[in-house]
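name: query_chain
kind: protein
chains: 1
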Amino acid sequence: WTPRGAMLAKPASVAEFDAAVTGTCVVNFRADWCPPCVQLDEVFSQLSTEHKTLTFVQVDAESLLQVSERFDVSAIPSFLVLEGGKEKERLVASSAPQLVQLVSSAAAQVAGPAGSADEDASAQAPLEQRLKELTHSSPNMLFMKGSPDAPRCGFSRQIVELLREEGVTFGHFDILSDEEVRQGLKTYSNWPTYPQLYSSGKLLGGLDVVREMKEEGELKDALSA
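structure:
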C-alpha cells in the first residue's frame, strides 16, 4: 500500500484504510474489471497531485468488502468525501467533470473563503479571456506537455501521432511552460487531464476521445480544415 504522507493511498487491509483516512478525505471505491473505474482512476490520481489539502484513498471495493459494507457502497465507481471518517458527500458512477467538481468543492471547503466574489471574478476575467484567445489561436489547437517534435509524456506523444496519421494541421501550446494556463484550462474546459484538443475553440476531448473518433472515422470531419 502507499504509506501516509503520499498523495494517493491504496490500502490493502481495513487497518491500513483506517490509518489512511485523515482530515478531509476523498475515497475512490473501484474494481479492476470495471472500465469506468479504470478510466476515472487516472483522473483521481491526477487530482491527488493537485489538491494537497485533501487526502486521497483508492479502495478495491471487493478486496476490502468490510470497508465497502461500512459505507454501504453498492455500486462502483463510487466517490465519497469523508470528514473525520464520516461521510459528507457521495458521487456514484460519475463522469470526469463531476469528479473534478466534487473534489474542487471539497478542497474549497477546506481552504475556506479566499476573498469576495467580486475579487474572484476580477481575477478570473483576464485569464478566461486569455484562454479563449489561446483555444482560438489555431483552427485546431492541441494543449499538450512539450511540443509535437518533443512531447514530454506518453499521452501527448500518442495524440500527436494520431493527428499526424490523419494529416491534420494543428497549433500547439506547452502547458508545462505556463502553470496559470495549465490549471485554468481545466476549469475553463471542465476537463481535468491533458492533452486537450480543440477545434474552432471548442473542446473535442483528450487522447481516448480522439483515438475513438479516429477508429470510427469521425476525426477528420470533427476538425477544422
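note: The first strand starts at residue 8 and ends at 9.
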